[in-house]
Amino acid sequence: MDLQDQTGIPFVGELNPLYMFENRKADHHETKYQKDFTADQFADLIYDKKSSIIMINKSSYLMADKADYVILRKNMIDAFMSYANFMLKLYPDIDTKVLLKEIQFTAYDYFGLKSYVDKYVCNIVWYEDYFGICETHTPLLDDHKHGTLIKKAIRDVFKER
After folding, report:
1. 3-state secondary structure the chain
2. What is the pLDDT of residue 84?
3. Average pLDDT across the chain, whole number
4. What is the average pLDDT across 38-63?
5. Exposed, middle or buried, 15 (CB in 10 Å: 0-12/13-18/19+)?
6. What pTM did the predictor assign?
7. Over the stretch 4-20, which tens digit does the pLDDT of each residue have?
8. What residue spans define the domains of the chain?
9. Which of 84, 100, 103, 123 has its CA 20 to 30 A from that of 157?
10. What is the per-residue pLDDT across 92-125, written as a single tens digit (0 to 9) for each?
């Protein structure tokens, strides 16, 4: 959001079709920010990426070649622990199998983006450095009845890579 202050170009949040239908992120994310989109606004943001600052989490690899910057985490295990905690905050009754599948699909998105940035030169901004993150706190995941299983699954996804 401070890039908006630096450039004068409006930050519209994450470009995800979910925000045409619901928006829990504005209430539960640490930034407390996410715009809702109409279908026309969403289409316009895809068509004209230069008039707004957008963040892309899902399927970001599809637009990596058009990005001015790519924000990545240095520690993907911490990133996914945080993501699992965030999902538990958004959906307290989520079935563990569903959460694990969501984590797996999101990891595939990450590996797709990582393959691009490993091969082609990108302006990478490291999330931990930019935001001064040194610890990841996951109280909901820590207290979850299947927290140990979820943490192991996350570690296993990144252990082989």
Report:
1. CHHHHHHCCCEEEECCHHHHCCCCHHHHCCCCCCCCCCHHHHHHHHHCHHHCEEECCCCHHHHHHHCCCEEECCCHHHHHHHHHHHHHHHCCCCCHHHHHHHHHHHHHHHHHHHHHHHHCCCCEEEHHHHHCCCCCCCHHHHHCCCHHHHHHHHHHHHHCC
2. 97
3. 84
4. 81
5. buried
6. 0.78
7. 777 788 887 777 777 77
8. 1-55, 69-161
9. 123
10. 999 999 999 999 999 999 999 999 999 997 888 8
Question: At residue 2, what is the residue type?
Answer: D
Question: Residue 151: CA atoms inside 13 Å, Cβ hemisphere, count?
Answer: 14
Q: Which two tokens stand for residue 20?
A: 């045409």
Which long-range contacts (C-beta less than 8 Å, at least 24 apart) are formed by 126-135?
126/71, 126/72, 126/73, 126/74, 127/71, 127/72, 127/73, 127/74, 127/79, 128/73, 128/74, 128/75, 129/74, 130/71
How far apart, in Å, are the Cα atoms of 108 and each of 34, 51, 58, 77, 84? Answer: 24, 29, 10, 14, 15
